[in-house]
Design a protein that fits this description.
heterotrimer; A alpha/beta; B mainly alpha; C alpha/beta; A: alpha/beta; seven-stranded mixed sheet; 2 helices; 29% strand; B: mainly alpha; 9 helices; elongated
Amino acid sequence: MQSNSNRDLAVGVFVLIGLGMIGYLSLQIGGLSLRDPGGLILFATFDDIGGLSPRSSVRVGGVRVGRVESIDLDEDLRARVRLNLALDLELSIDSAAAIRTSGLLGDQFIALEPGAEDELLVSGEEFAFTENAMNLDRLIGSVVHGDGLGGGD
Amino acid sequence: MMNRIRGLGAATLLQLEEIGEVVRFGGRILRATTRPPFRWRAFMAAVYDSGVLSVALICASGLTVGFVLGLQLYNTLIRFGAEDSLGTAVGLSLIRELGPVLTGLLVTGRAGSAITAEIGAMRTGQQLDGLRMMAIDPIHYIVMPRATALAFVMPLLSALFVVLGVFGAYLIGVELLGLDGGAYLGSLEAAVEFRTDVLQSLVKSLIFGLLLGLIATWRGYSCEPHSAGVSRATTSTVVTASICILLADYLLTALWSL
Amino acid sequence: MTEADPEPGHVEIRGVALAFGRRRVFESLDCSFVRGRISVLMGGSGTGKSTLLRMIGGLQRPDEGSIHVAGEEIVGLGEIGLARVRDRLGMLFQNGALLDSMSVFDNVALPLREHTDLPAAEIAERVHDRLAAVGLSDIDDLLPGELSGGMLRRAALARAIVMEPEILLCDEPFSGLDPPNVSRVEALLSHLNRDRGLTVIVTSHHMATSLRMAHRILLLRNGGCVEGSPAQLASSRDSAIREFLGKDGAEYLAHHGHEFQGADG
């Protein structure tokens, strides 16, 4: 068989570049972690989760620290969200979980606001403070009726 | 009137019959991959012809599509004051849709048609019969390396297209239109996630590659053994594969969002 | 009328019928090809010479009938079964059918590399031996496209015999060649038949060459065939046959009249 070492080299370089591109897209841009950083399981209960869905991201100060694993209704018919967060995350017991929207029309995510207490949340515990998804209708309604913004919890 | 209906029925049956043959052909290719030897030499040669030789085309197209996307999306986003999200808009459109689909169509035109012509010429010159007479399976020897090479190069080329597109839009947005580079990359990285976006892109391009590999080799293998037949088969590859890629794109997009 | 052969032919065709669409090519065809002999299939265009050769090779399936190659029924065999029979066949196609992206050496070596575990040195020896046998040397690295018609035909012949087949099928081996090359190929085929006992089946309409080379001629017409030695056919009572063989037939008789046994073809 004709062996063409130049061509073989070109093929090798091509494959390396292609794999490199895939790696860049996956790791750098797509945020794929090669080690599973999850493991810290926390729960947050909301009246209204808006457009939040399983796989939505969880962020602290804009940085992704985990994802929503599942959403269920509890006995009071409120939405109980199960979060899978980075194992090394340290959140005090007075931290809050709020549902925010990315930009004006973007995806919904959970923003965690760290509290001030020394004691930390442990796997399996609940967030004490939660903030519902902002409902655009209610917002406009309260502005129109001059009620003041009633985001509430 | 009855003749029209009869004609439609006959045409439909003919189509179904052909689809059946293509599926059977695909099965033979699949079985050929499990039988040793793998034919690395031929595979590498096919990767060179379909992949390496397409790099220039993919780079040029990716870059220009990036330029256009950057410009067009900027014009729309700036109306909502959301121009800092250019990275998001460009990244998501390229990764989820434009990367795999445009790469698929470009590779179809460039490499798919070439493979159909090559196999068709072999059929015309009785080279495939020659192989059979030597008790060598032409599907194992000729078809399998080429079909697998097409499937293999597609995700690689698609990723290359996407990265160049992102870069092209970056050049337009940041260098030309004065956006903040950090905001561009930041919004890009924030919006794109591996599981929902990058993985979808890779799976799509792999499936497009498999479709093209099957269609391009089938058309060459089953064409009428003369130059007009080869020419017709080559055109048919481009048309059929393009349509199948677009349909598959729709199906995969729908399935992925479930 | 065929002579009664004491043993079944190396290739036996019985009751074969084949039609392409509305065109009937064969209608209950019976013929046999004797082992170790050169048989030439002749007939006007469209009488199915090449098709019959392809059927023997398993590349074309008849609508009805049976075909026995080296004692084995091949109608109804799948590609895997046919592969077994093809081990004993070699086929020379009209335009060579060498793979045009590979060198001549690689083309001739291909069956050896695919079907045997021979070391590279031995493969090289065999390939060069076959190429020398057909009168080609120093063309190892040339591509088929760089060969002249005669050289291409002979290279393809080298490939056809590299696996030592029992039966050699040649589709129009003389067509498109200039007279010196026609003689060369004729000499090669006769030589292979004499020295290696190869059964050679050829399709041709090169009248003079065929008559000279053949032990038996099979004339295809009207969906069937007429068999006989060249002398028998040349002196046939059937005027259509004599007319087909034409002036070459008459010339053949003039030179070989003493071989004529008497009974008509």
